Amino acid sequence: MSYAVVRMAKMKSHDLKGMQFHNQRERESKTNPDIDEERSHENYDLANEENIDYNERVNEIIESQKTSTRKTRKDAVLVNELLITSDREFFDGLDPDEQKRFFEESYSLLSERYGKQNIAYAVVHNDEKTPHMHMGVVPMRDGRLQGKNVFNRQELLWLQDNFPKHMKEQGFELERGEKGSTREHLETRDFKKKMLEKEIDSLEENLAVKKSELSALTEKVPDEIKVPAKRQMKRVEVPTGEKSIFGREKMKTERQPTKNVILSEDNYKKLTSAAEDGQRLKGHVNNLLSTDFAQENKRLRNKNKKLEVTNKSLTSENAELKMDNNRLRSKISSLTNELENVYQTTKDFLKERTNGLQAFKEVLGSWVGRIKEKLPKSEIGRLHERSEAKEKTFDMNRVKELNKEAKKEKSVQKKKDMDLEL
Questions:
Q1: A single GO BP annotation from the record (predicted)?
Q2: 179, 208, 230 — which closes off a domain?
Q3: Which tens digits make up the pLDDT trace of 213-265?
């Protein structure tokens, strides 16, 4: 049986452009090798007929409902993206129409629960290894964004319990994932890793655009500017080192350069234009270094490091859980053997102290019945049922053997009677 998978990721303003690029296949992905571009035409959006600008669409949803005049915080969660899917085996068992119906039923259930007016997009990807749907929910409630209230722990549990139940009622063979299983943690980690890869992909695309702009601006600024210039000269009096008959220092006039240069008007304009271009280039570089892209790059690096630490922690936790699982299996096996011994010992004890088979069965049945009243799924009850079934099978086989022996004896006796008559 396949499991229903519903995963949720929080999307802020800077995440939306990357998700738009990924979901609508607007850029060639450098981080997701699973995408088969030849099948990208099979993708579709259940909420929009054409490609949209995610930031504009989300802003429209917020502005059309919000009751406050306050601006939305820059770090606010604007979209809770739900990833709806199952395993490859499940989708292999569906024809194209049923597969589409699976996503349509998912969209119908979730858009009804969170409000169709709050669904920004519902993109189905058929060009990756396993079909899945990215559904963007803007968490609007009572005229304001309430991501923490809309998608709290209780709501996530509701999704885990009710989504597979609803889909099963629609004819899809799906089960709920195991509660507290390591599979759930690992799938969440992998999903977060993919989300981070998409963010990095978007960042790379935006940085590539900025690099192109910077390169174009750099080409406008010449590497070297040559303009003819002359030193400005002026006449100054300097001592000759000789003295007059009156004892005064003799002076002479010389032409000496000043700290100024003389340029033609055209050459002056060239230098001014080059200086302005250089200043613009400097400002552009400073803007790039101080923009969200640079800050986002730092943030994603830190986030990646945290995910690596989380990955190591989950791997270690998984190993510990496996060890605990093995210990529990061993303990359960030991307890099962112990219960079997208790049941058999009790059965032998009652058999020795009751008169007749029927009385023994009644006493044993009464003892097992009392246990089942307190513990309906008791192992003792299961052992008793299995023992009863085994005894019935044994009794039937014994009856068959006795019948065979009786027929055989009858046949032998009949032969003896015939021999005597002769």
A1: DNA recombination
A2: 179
A3: 666 666 655 556 666 777 778 888 888 888 877 778 888 888 888 878 777 78
Domain tally, the chain = 2
State how far the Cα of 293 lies from the Cα of 295, in Å rounded to an integer. 5
Task: State both tokens at 187.
Answer: 């799938």
Q: Determine contact, residues 174/184, Cβ cutoff 8 Å.
A: no
Q: Among 133, 158, 179, where does a domain finish? A: 179
Angle ∠(395,333,379) on CA atoms, nearest 5? 50
Residue 68: name the closest of 151, 150, 142, 12 by CA.
142
Map residue 73 onto helix, strand or coil: coil
Give the pTM.
0.48
Residue range of the domain that includes 98: 2-179
Pairing of strands 249-262, 230-243: antiparallel
Q: Are 408 and 401 in contact (CB under 8 A)?
A: no
- CA 339, CA 387: separation in Å to the nearest integer? 13
How many angstroms separate the CA atoms of 338 and 205, rounded? 64
Work out whether strand 230-243 and strand 119-125 pair parallel, antiparallel, or are unpaired.
unpaired
Q: The domain spanning residue 32 has which CATH number?
A: 3.30.930.30
Sequence-distant (6+) residues with CB within 8 A of 111 are 47, 119, 122
- How far is it, in rounded angstroms, from Cα 182 to Cα 322? 9
Structure tokens at 113: 């629960």
Residue 380 CB: number of other CB atoms within 10 A?
17
Distance from C-alpha of 65 to C-alpha of 140, rounded to nearest angstrom: 8
Return d(Cα 264, Cα 325) in angstroms, integer: 88
Q: Which two tokens stand for residue 251?
A: 């002076």
pLDDT tens string 357-386: 788 788 888 888 888 787 776 778 777 887
Number of Cβ within a 10 Å radius of residue 399: 10
